[in-house]
Design a protein that fits this description.
This protein is of the alpha+beta class and 705 residues long. The protein contains 20 helices and 21 strands. The strands form 4 sheets. Strands 16, 17, 18, 19, 20 and 21 form a 6-stranded mixed beta sheet that branches.
């Protein structure tokens, strides 16, 4: 016996001879039918429009001549019991039993509905995935969406077009062709907003639909297109069409006439179907793209055979480059292999050593180091470049970087744009070349560290015999004349770039002095080297070459450097003295912020003040000249007269002549100077003090005033 029959038996037992009717309402089908009637022939169905808005599973309504008991069940279904007696026959405790007796039968119907929904969903998914033709898939989607939600009558699908930045209708049912003019912006109207935020929407009245369209700023044109394309709907559900979290479109289905209230369950069903829809669309798109590619591949098959042969050849050359690097055959061999691989003249600029590797050693470089750095100062990307002087030449310039450090650049002579195959070859081969450059730099740094350690050992040795022995072991002529030079770069923004600049400076020095420069090495911001010469007067040509190096370096707009050079000494035992003098000369230049080349003996009298602090020197100058500065406008010409007088070796005639004043005027000024400074120029100590102060006043740049 079914639960429904238990319910009827229960009613018959309780009501005895009182007439009653039991009606059943199917919410989804909007269908009602009489389940049982006793003692009454009038079978007019009751109203089933009520919705259960409370948590109670039933509702009792007393009428004038009968009592209604409405039993509520899932999915909107109802059982309506009409007892034709003015009093409530069933007690408040008995009604839940009655609700329970009918519950199982209602759940069976609910399960049948779910099974039908699932069958419809599976059949719809099969339908839209049964074809890989994009047009067929799009045409099937809306029809199957209506099958998934049977209470709907029409709908349309929009896909996002990134070029137009609009959602474009692709398929529709229940609309005329005006629907294809309905193209909305992201965020516009219902469909545009659902696409924007990915949140599905249920709208259960005309007012809701049109308010939502207006709230999301539907344009006048789109409003006209959508309202002229079909009837005004009674309800709608709109969902986003997404795949792997990326929205590709939106789908909306309509009810022309009210069949049922759309629920969250309907929304979830449609969202599940929309997910499968996205996969079907993507598969069809992939298939379409694959078909197009197959067509293209077929047309290019012969060309691909030729390209394949070229790629195989380049692969062999790539392996050759790797082998060359592993065998330490050097950059020259690698650049030669690039020429073989690319088949066009390839040259390379090594920025670490400021050295060009040309495809023809008899040629001169087409670019300078400064030009290449300028060309890549704004962007590190390769590009084509045309030079018109002295005649037109086209190049493809391909830089190599290690982080922000510019390692070098390929310079390829081309007739036209470089081919894709050659570009890929450069891209693959450049990594090998970058490793080769970094490896070479690492070896150089190791050599510098080793040289520095040897140099420090020579400086610290106290025993003369041991010093001579170690000098001979490292290849130094211990009886030669020696001069030490220290190059210092002081202006830099990045330690890695400074390391490269020091490396380049050391390389240029070695190129200019291949034999006379000994123990050259870079350390922090300095390049330190010993010069060996057979006679003291042979250092003058070396100093001129150093000046030439500095001029070229400064003209290339690289960070300026200063050079401190020691005096010339015979014998390796004086190496510590050479180092101290070169260091003091650098200190002297630094105290005056001068980026110059200077020898220790050229410091002259200033050697006495190298170890004096800036504060002490400024205090001494201030002690002598401060009386002038107390009223500088008035005493300015007195200070100028004194400085000129001392610089002319105290010649009154020359001073007066240069100042364009009478000799008597000059003597008057001298008297005023002596009174103001409270010194006597004829006094030996005062004269020495004045001369020293004037000397520092004119040579020391960090002076007050």
């Amino acid at each position: 016996m079914s639960k429904a029959e238990f319910g009827l038996l229960f009613l018959k037992d309780k009501l005895k001879d009182i007439p009653f009717q039991v009606w059943e309402y199917d919410y989804l089908q909007d269908d009602m039918h009489l389940l049982h009637s006793s003692g009454r022939e009038n079978n007019t169905p009751p109203s089933f429009h009520e919705i259960n808005n409370t948590e109670s599973p039933y509702k009792v309504i007393k009428h004038e001549k009968y009592v209604s008991i409405i039993l509520f069940y899932p999915e909107g279904n109802q059982v309506h019991v009409s007892i034709f007696d003015s009093s409530t026959i069933l007690s408040i405790k008995e009604i839940p039993y009655l609700h329970h007796f009918f519950y199982v039968s209602q759940m069976k119907k609910t399960l049948q509905i779910k099974e039908t929904e699932l069958t419809n969903l599976v059949d719809s998914v099969r339908s839209i995935t049964s074809s890989l033709d994009l047009e067929v898939v799009l045409g099937n989607i809306i029809q199957n969406a209506l099958n998934v939600i049977p209470a709907t009558d029409a709908g349309f699908l929009l896909l996002y077009d990134p070029i137009l930045d609009r959602l474009i209708p692709k398929a529709a049912i229940g609309f005329n062709d005006n629907i294809y003019n309905f193209k909305v912006r992201v965020g516009e109207s219902i469909t545009g907003k659902v696409f924007e935020d990915g949140k599905g929407r249920i709208l259960n009245s005309k007012d809701e639909i049109f308010k939502e369209m207006d709230r999301h700023s539907i344009s006048d044109d789109n409003y006209h297109h959508i309202t002229s394309a079909a009837y005004k709907p009674e309800a709608a559900i709109c969902v986003a069409v997404s795949i792997e979290g990326v929205r590709i479109g939106a789908m909306i289905i309509h009810q022309w006439k009210r069949k049922k209230v759309m629920t969250e369950h309907d929304l979830r069903l449609l969202e599940g179907f929309a997910g499968q829809t996205a996969i079907a669309i993507q598969n069809a798109q992939y298939y379409s793209e694959a078909q197009n590619k197959i067509t293209v591949i077929t047309e290019l098959s012969e060309e691909l055979k030729v390209k394949n042969n070229q790629l195989q050849k380049r692969h062999q050359v790539h392996e050759s480059l790797t082998n060359i690097s592993l065998e330490n055959k050097g950059l020259e061999t690698i650049i030669f292999e690039f020429n073989q691989m690319i088949g066009q003249p390839v040259s390379f600029y090594n920025a670490l050593e400021n050295k060009f590797y040309l495809y023809d050693s008899n040629l001169t470089p087409d670019f300078t180091m400064h030009e290449l750095k300028e060309l890549f100062s704004t962007s590190p990307k390769p590009f084509h470049f045309e030079r018109s002087s002295p005649h037109v030449k086209k190049f493809y310039l391909y830089p190599i970087y290690n982080g922000i450090v510019f390692l070098g650049c390929f310079m390829i002579n081309v007739d036209d744009a470089i081919s894709e195959a050659d570009r890929i070859t450069l891209e693959q081969g450049s990594s090998i070349l970058a490793l080769e450059l970094i490896k070479k730099q690492t070896v150089t740094e190791y050599y510098y560290r080793k040289t520095h350690d040897q140099f420090q050992e020579l400086l610290t040795l106290q025993d003369a015999d041991q010093l001579l022995q170690i000098g001979k072991e490292i290849g130094l002529n211990t009886s030669s004349y020696w001069v030490m030079a220290i190059f210092q770069i002081t202006s830099y923004t990045d330690l890695q770039l400074l390391e490269i600049e020091i490396h380049q400076l050391a390389s240029e020095i070695k190129n200019v002095f291949p034999s006379s420069a000994k123990m050259i090495h870079g350390l922090n911001d300095q390049v330190i080297l010993l010069f060996t010469i057979s006679k003291p007067d042979l250092f003058m040509p070396i100093q001129k070459d150093i000046q030439s190096i500095k001029k070229l370096w400064d003209n290339s707009k690289r960070p300026f450097f200063r050079v401190g050079i020691s005096s010339t000494y015979k014998g390796l035992e004086n190496i510590k003295k050479c180092y101290d003098e070169a260091t003091k000369t650098l200190s002297y230049l630094a105290s005056r912020d001068r980026m110059e080349i200077m020898r220790y003996e050229d410091i002259g009298l200033n050697q006495l003040f190298i170890n004096q602090s800036n504060t002490e020197i400024e205090r001494f100058i201030d002690d002598v000249f401060s009386p002038f500065w107390s009223d500088y406008e008035r005493n300015k010409e007195l200070e100028e007269t004194l400085l000129l007088y001392i610089s002319t070796n105290r010649s009154a005639t020359q001073t007066a002549k240069k100042l364009h004043i009478h000799i008597n005027t000059f003597y008057q000024r001298i008297k005023k100077i002596e009174d103001l400074l409270q010194l006597k120029l004829n006094d030996h100590e005062d004269s020495l003090k004045i001369q020293l102060a004037c000397h520092l006043r004119t040579t020391y740049t960090q002076v007050l005033h």
